[in-house]
Design goal:
single chain, alpha/beta, Rossmann fold, 8-stranded parallel β-sheet, 6 helices
Length: 285
Amino acid sequence: MQTVPFPDARVPTRTHCLLPRQCTAIVEQRFIALALFGDDNNPMKPLNSVPLEGAVAVVTGGGRGIGLAIVRKLAGLGARVVLTGRDEALVKRIAADLTGAGRRADGLRCDVTDSHEVEVFGKHLQKTFGKVHILVNSAGIGGPSGELHRLAPADWDSILNTNLRGVYYMIRAVVPLMIDSGGGHIINISSLAGKNPLPRGVAYSASKWGLNGLSYGAAEELRGHNIRVSVVCPGSVNTEFSSHAGKSAERMLQPDDVAHAVEALVTQAPQSFMSEILLRPTQKP
């Protein structure tokens, strides 16, 4: 796999890979934690065997599916995870369960489409933690299936506001704290629909094409602050997100596969920058 020095190289590499369980790993990373976690005066100092000990990680859409798998993964790696969602009771229950199991988590309501709620959330992070090291933008919706010219404007707005505008709101709220932390990692959960046409899902596809473009541009803006912005583009994942009619659940990607990709990103060596991961099942479902 080709890598580039971070943050001096001008153009980040795009890593195309398949990852297990349902996919084959062709990217191997030694889990050396970002040195951002543990010594504010030396943001590239390696850590101990608990890779994310001392890190504060924010995960949107953390109550279900891919987001929940990522929350559990990051908590297992030692991070203090702040998970958000619109269902306050759900995210609080998940956080309580993780904390009761010896991990550290906080569940907070935050609707990423509401700029005021996101701003209040950012102020809470500032007051409570003073810094953020990881932001995973996982909140997303698919919307109704159908031809674009029959899609209601309200559905278009809902899809774009959640999948694209919400990521902008979160980056705006969290990046100042990340800069104060000495750097960090932003991971945007996109889709292969953001790389290919998706008939009868054009609005969703457009939102993910936009998210990919946002990610590439933000990566260039923020790399001078030691902030790596990466995008993960999975194919169909076995969640309640959509029906996946006619597909084999066993062959589909699972939420833990996406969480595994996130783990590889946040534990890569400090000189490495995997800017993009394309995730496909080994066998077509």
